[in-house]
Design brief:
2 copies of one chain form a homodimer.
Chain A (H helix, E strand, L loop, with lengths): L9 E2 L8 E2 L4 E8 L4 E8 L4 E6 L9 H15 L11 H17 L4 H5 L11 E11 L3 H12 L4 E4 L15 E3 L4 H5 L7 H11 L6 H21 L18 E3 L3 H15 L2 E4 L2 E9 L2 E9 L4 E11 L19 E2 L8 H8 L4 E2 L4 E11 L2 E4 L1 H9 L3 E3 L13 H8 L7 E6 H11 L6 H10 L7 E4 L2 H8 L3 H16 L23 E13 L2 E2 L6 E3 L5 E7 L16 H22 L1
Parallel strand pairs in A: 6-7, 6-13, 7-10, 13-24, 14-21
Antiparallel strand pairs in A: 1-2, 3-4, 4-5, 8-9, 11-12, 12-13, 15-22, 16-17, 16-21, 18-19, 19-21, 20-21, 23-24
Helix pairs in contact in A: 1-2, 4-8, 4-16, 6-7, 7-16, 10-12, 14-15
Cofactor (chains A, B): FAD; FMN
InterPro entries (chains A, B): FAD-dep_OxRdtase_2_FAD-bd (IPR003953), FAD-oxidoreductase_2 (IPR050315), FAD/NAD-bd_sf (IPR036188), FMN-bd (IPR007329), Succ_DH/fumarate_Rdtase_cat_sf (IPR027477)
Protein name (chains A, B): Flavocytochrome c
Amino acid sequence: MMKLSKLSMAICLCAGCSLSFAFEAGTFEASYPGIGGMVPVKVTFSKDKIEKIEVDPNKETVGIGQNAIASISSEVVKTQSLAVDNVTGATVTSKALLDGIKECVQKAKGDVAQLTKKKNIAPVIAKTETINTDLVIVGGGAAGMIAAINAADQHLKVTLVEKMNFLGGASAICGGSVVTEGSQLQKDLGVKDDTPAKLAYDLLDNGHQKNDMNALVFYVNNVGKSIDWAVAKGVKFEKDFSFRAEWRTSRMVPLKGGCPAFAETLRELVKNAKVNVLLSIKAEQVNMTDGSATGITAVGKNGTKYIINAKAVLLATGGYGYNKEMLKGSLKDALYYGPVSSTGDGHKMAENAGAAMQLMDYGKLYPQGIEVAPGIAKSTLQGNIGAYNQAGIMVDKNGNRVINEKGSGKDMVAIQTKQPASTLYLALDQKSFDGFRDYAKKNGISSEDIDKWLAQDGKKPPLFIKGNSIEEAAKKAGINPKNLLDTVEKYNSYVVNKDDKDFHRPVKFMTKTIDVSGPFYIVEQKPRFATTLGGVKVTTKMEVLDKNGKPIPNLYAAGELANSVHGDDSAPGANVAWCITTGKTVSDAIANKLQN
Amino acid sequence: MMKLSKLSMAICLCAGCSLSFAFEAGTFEASYPGIGGMVPVKVTFSKDKIEKIEVDPNKETVGIGQNAIASISSEVVKTQSLAVDNVTGATVTSKALLDGIKECVQKAKGDVAQLTKKKNIAPVIAKTETINTDLVIVGGGAAGMIAAINAADQHLKVTLVEKMNFLGGASAICGGSVVTEGSQLQKDLGVKDDTPAKLAYDLLDNGHQKNDMNALVFYVNNVGKSIDWAVAKGVKFEKDFSFRAEWRTSRMVPLKGGCPAFAETLRELVKNAKVNVLLSIKAEQVNMTDGSATGITAVGKNGTKYIINAKAVLLATGGYGYNKEMLKGSLKDALYYGPVSSTGDGHKMAENAGAAMQLMDYGKLYPQGIEVAPGIAKSTLQGNIGAYNQAGIMVDKNGNRVINEKGSGKDMVAIQTKQPASTLYLALDQKSFDGFRDYAKKNGISSEDIDKWLAQDGKKPPLFIKGNSIEEAAKKAGINPKNLLDTVEKYNSYVVNKDDKDFHRPVKFMTKTIDVSGPFYIVEQKPRFATTLGGVKVTTKMEVLDKNGKPIPNLYAAGELANSVHGDDSAPGANVAWCITTGKTVSDAIANKLQN
């Protein structure tokens, strides 16, 4: 590392300020923890300028953290300032990078305080830009990107508006599997007898017949063709079905590389398509003329107002999981693990345009959440599997088991949401905790994370407790110690007799007794959700319906905004397939309408 | 009764003949058995003329037999001839009436042979008539009549074409109950939480997910409003639900007066509406211009060809149960109890117009049929109930029981269709046979019918056997006598122990042992059907789809012709409701389209 002892002054290059800085010319390095590990940054200084910022290989999320790294680095160099905002949706990565740059500035003897001062930016004169387009799509998640790609392929003039500074929405954090009913993919994997009606039946079963029937028939009639389209466009799938009890017919296929790869493929396709992508521009309303949608109004970060006139408006704005004000019922207290961009913007825009809404109380809850930040979850789904392979059990605050730990998530949530603070607890001996720790990595929970949480000793969430004995761990976690001891003994007798008389845990997951000698661990288990199920009412062509049941001309919905297709619960693989189906089929219908 | 001894001659008044007749002036009476009992006729003669035919009160079917009586009476008087054809679909009534008239002619000393001679009618010059209309409806069953009434209410010019000489189709022989999901009627009866999705789920369950999803969504979204319409128009319902296992939600309500009253209400409404009803005119094809339906061509009995130009064509032609050539699979051998007019005309017309067909193998089978004429069934549903209330059992040709006699019809048909000649047998001691005879009346089977069939002693169908002992009855019926004896003994032991170890017949229907002392009776049980389930593929607006999945412009389907909505089985009350829903909603859509 070079060091220069001579300080020099320089005039800042930025327009709205006249500060001057001095650095030791040279390249300095620092590294702070991001979301996927450390974020190693290298900053090169001349005497009076931050010349270059480089970030070494890291595990920040493609399309989210990586975009934040690129945009923040370029912003700092461009503005010669550290007064750069974190990127919404990539806060942890942004902070890691900015902290690293600041350390480099300190190492280069720069004045961090001065550089971090908000600049006296001359007030921006708000501009208004008018854009004329065939189709404006609001929201750059899976549904919006697919609609944009497909509409552009059909020579529509497409404008895609995304409030974040990257495309992806919830697509990169999805479950990673896709329903393929009626597709060539499904047939090639050996299932040729699936039908729209069979899929509809399973969806109605899973969603307790709260499903929107119009959306449902649209879904089942079009999913196969839409999956075929995705395959043709380069979306990659595994070579076998994934089996789940929700589906009576084999129709769920994992995405190759999971959802991150899926999202990346879509981003590439958008890049290569003739789509006018407007990032960091937030749609604010659907413009209506004589009861018909005629475009949208959006606002850029710099205050620029965009009037986008369009022949068709497609809202693909995702859910409202990150908007507490819109959450109801058990969702209000559940932990969230979805994207921060899911704030229900499209729900509000649609409602203001006269749309009828439904099922706004519902979301897809899973039982295996730990609270890693206020209101924010990480999933321990994999960690639990590791624990149950050993001798892990689940108990309530009274220290009693309440369910077959290997039962369905749906049954577990039903019991969990009736507990104080909707919380259940994993009760783990050493080998079970080791199993938990090992498997938890698959959900992106590192051993370091776990040690940090253990060190907090329950003083702040997530609750990870270690005690020298069962009683000590129980007491620290606020669980009835005597009952927990009894529960452990009873469970051990069930293991010996190969019969869980209380909850019928499968014998193959009861091979080991719980070690009562200590140490002993307690881990909180709270409901988590990412996907909301409430949304707009639609016709069988995904036209948005008004409160009198009439379609609002030229206004369409796709993806999570129209999630009532699922009813009060969503089945595995059904959300991604829904985004693909709506994105593809609605854009086809719009192209067909505009060109005929 | 007057008698005149003087004979006189007269010139026949009919145009195409020059025969002369002589009668004893006066009024004569005769009476022959029809379908519902005796048909008493009074004929008044002058010296040279049949002056008047009157028929006294009788039980012939309203809308079918009664129409035949009216049209034959008027035809005989008008043509002064007995060479009048039986009315198709009312053969028994026609024959009873004509036999009565002939007897009266004999009593009046008229020359029956001469009067029955085919007249030398001058060859008819085939005419062509052209009719211009807004909507032409083919088929005057429930769906067609409702569409006609509703379209006329909305000031469309409506032409209703029916090949029979009366309106009604299958409506008068339906099960008599109606699905009411979402209607005010259902709410008024206390069920307010039914939904389209709940109905869809039950229909998919019952139809084994073979249901047409487009038709299904159309059905569940529109049935409630359609029932409300029917109520407003004067269709009368009972004041309570009828409960059936197929429905998870109470939604089936019996029609007041059953289906005959329903059909009669519709006929009255058609009569009072501004509808151009063309009876005895058979539609032969949908006329197509540039791929769009532009009307139909039909032919009258006298050879007149009708070109009916229309802006919309609605096919409501019913099923194909009476057309052996179109029946497949287990339907081919099943007995039929539906209307003779169900010959699949609309299926053929639609297919010739390019329509895609589906589920043509399926019909709604019931297990309790006896063959009263070749291929024709009557139902013994009620008779069986009477027999099972005593000690009646059901056996196969080997003399073994094969099922819980009180189980579902669906399960019974599944076993029955695997038997030789798809036949099972009621095995009845005297008190069980008495119970059968008593209850069978509710299905229109008289004690005289039963005695007649017993007298035939199995020499021709239906098989009704009486033997002095179990063995004798079994032998005559071709059933293994030893096995039947063993079966009876075993069943009796189950009755004593209150436990049917083989098939779990409910104990409350096992209160009496079978009397082994004789006499003993065997009654055949064959599958019967009236409703076919195959039909045209449709859009969610009941537009007929072509083989490429594109709607055929201006061509719509309603009623049994689009019965694939039900899947491979139809649930109770779902057929009548389907006819009401399609008739009402499709005509609304057509009116809306033509007037906007």
